[in-house]
């Protein structure tokens, strides 16, 4: 049946009680939003990463940070459940406590050295990565547990299920950047969720996390919850996959950097893939792959302003003119791009001083990037050029200025 919607809510959309309430309202507004994928709350994954780093250095701050995060989640659970006459809070807090115990044990283990059962399956490095992936998973499991309980009270007449995403998202054993096994995911999701079309049911699950064939936790890569949503889309063939975030769609350029950016209302899968894979943080780089061949549309919109509309990503006939720009300045993104561009640019070093701007779409025939930027006294170097994009290295301290000038000239 076509109407089914897989809806994913990102970290900033579940950061506090009022944010979670907005997500709840969105779920209730369309009866077909039956599969709900939830990220960890805002900044939790970064904090788990930091805790791991501190624990490996045997620093007591690891535990302090865990304690702070625990307080935040306890408060969130109390706040979202406060308006319901319920004793459910106790059960939620018990489950959260268990998850924090798991995190605490993992931090101890990383510090004392991985347990022998992990080591006998792989190297010290992979055993540490296994610990890290499991620690990361705690973030998504905390937020989904709270949101599940909240939704249950918000929609007392509907049936709700909380499913551990690891029972569906099967991957290889590359713990921190696991590759999903699409066929197994489809079989698992069909088995667990196949009847959802006919039932008045809402399922809450986590983004970002998976499981290898030995039952060990993996993650799809940082920011990977968008990918979980489209992998479930691939498996269940819904009418659409929705990515709910903190901006009302994909903009011509990151609106936090250039407030003059405008929303792109419709976008082709290939252009969206280029934007995401060249550094536009709004979508995980592989998000489109599971759904583009099936033609399942992806809708990107804001939980802060759901009525403002958003971006529909679907198969479009080729357009001419520029579509958008991706700005890459985050160290993690630049590392990924270094690998991508490294093949044709041996020895390339992106990072502290050098960032990347990519223009997606086509440029006007008489336009020369080199001349345009040269006119501003900015030296740039083309790193990759395709029929729908051009990426170039640029000094990081001139990036915003160059992006702003290019945006005014081209968009
Ligand atoms: P979530 O937590 O919902 O996954 P993200 O932080 O991963 O949200 O992605 C949303 C952010 O992406 C926005 O706040 C925005 O700053 C950034 N962003 C980067 N490029 C773009 C773009 N072209 N259009 C919209 N947002 C963008
Ligand atoms: N929570 C994970 C991260 O921050 C996944 C996601 O939000 O997409 O990377
Ligand atoms: Mg994201």
List keywords for this structure.
411 residues, alpha/beta, 2 domains, eight-stranded mixed β-sheet, 13 helices, 14 strands, 18% strand, binds adenosine-5'-diphosphate, binds aspartic acid, binds magnesium ion
Describe the model.
It is a single chain. With 411 residues, this protein is of the alpha/beta class. It folds into two domains: 2-246, Acetylglutamate kinase-like (Carbamate kinase); 322-410, Alpha-Beta Plaits (2-Layer Sandwich), CATH 3.30.70. The chain has helices spanning 17-29, 44-56, 61-81, 88-112, 116-119, 124-154, 182-193, 225-236, 269-277, 289-292, 331-342, 369-375, 399-410; strands at residues 5-9, 33-38, 159-162, 201-206, 209-211, 217-219, 240-245, 266-268, 298-302, 310-314, 322-328, 354-361, 381-385, 389-395. An eight-stranded mixed beta sheet has the order 3-4-2-1-7-9-10-8, with helices on both faces. α1 packs across α3. Adenosine-5'-diphosphate binds at residues 10-13, 39, 223, 245-247, 250-251, 253-256, 280-282, 324. Magnesium ion is lined by residues 10, 223, 226.
């Amino acid at each position: 049946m076509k109407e089914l919607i897989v809806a994913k809510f990102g970290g900033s959309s579940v950061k506090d009680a009022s944010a979670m309430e907005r997500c709840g309202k969105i779920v209730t507004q369309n009866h077909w939003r039956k599969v709900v994928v939830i990220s960890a709350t805002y900044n939790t994954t970064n904090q788990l990463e930091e805790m791991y780093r501190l624990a490996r250095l045997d620093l007591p701050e690891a535990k302090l940070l865990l304690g702070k995060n625990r307080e935040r989640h306890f408060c969130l659970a109390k706040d979202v459940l406060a308006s319901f006459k319920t004793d459910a809070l106790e059960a939620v807090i018990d489950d959260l406590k268990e998850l924090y115990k798991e995190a605490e044990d993992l931090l101890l283990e990383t510090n004392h050295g991985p347990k022998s059962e992990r080591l006998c399956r792989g190297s010290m490095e992979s055993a540490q990565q296994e610990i890290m992936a499991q620690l990361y998973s705690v973030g998504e499991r905390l937020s989904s547990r709270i949101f599940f309980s909240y939704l249950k009270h918000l929609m007392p007449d509907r049936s709700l299920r909380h499913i551990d995403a690891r029972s569906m998202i099967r991957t290889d054993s590359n713990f921190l950047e696991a590759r999903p096994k699409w066929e197994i995911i489809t079989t698992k999701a069909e088995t667990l969720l196949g009847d959802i079309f006919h039932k008045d049911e809402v399922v809450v699950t986590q983004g970002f996390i998976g499981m290898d064939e030995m039952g060990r936790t993996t993650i799809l890569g940082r920011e990977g919850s968008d990918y979980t949503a489209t992998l479930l889309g691939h498996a269940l063939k819904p009418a659409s996959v929705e990515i709910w975030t903190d901006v009302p769609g994909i903009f011509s350029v990151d609106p936090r950097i250039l407030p003059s950016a405008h929303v792109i209302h419709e976008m082709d899968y290939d252009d969206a893939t280029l934007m995401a894979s060249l550094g536009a943080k709004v979508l995980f780089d592989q998000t489109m792959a599971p759904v583009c061949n099936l033609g399942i549309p992806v809708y990107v919109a804001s939980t802060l302003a759901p009525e403002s509309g958003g971006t529909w990503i679907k198969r479009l006939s080729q357009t001419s003119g520029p579509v958008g720009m991706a700005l890459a300045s985050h160290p993690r993104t630049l590392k990924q791009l270094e690998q991508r561009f490294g093949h044709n640019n041996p020895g390339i070093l992106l990072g502290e001083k050098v960032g990347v701007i990519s223009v997606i779409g086509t440029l006007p025939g008489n336009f020369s990037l080199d001349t345009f930027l040269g006119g501003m006294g900015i030296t740039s170097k083309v790193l990759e050029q395709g029929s729908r994009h051009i990426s170039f290295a640029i000094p990081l301290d001139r990036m915003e200025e160059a992006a702003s000038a290019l945006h005014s000239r081209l968009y």
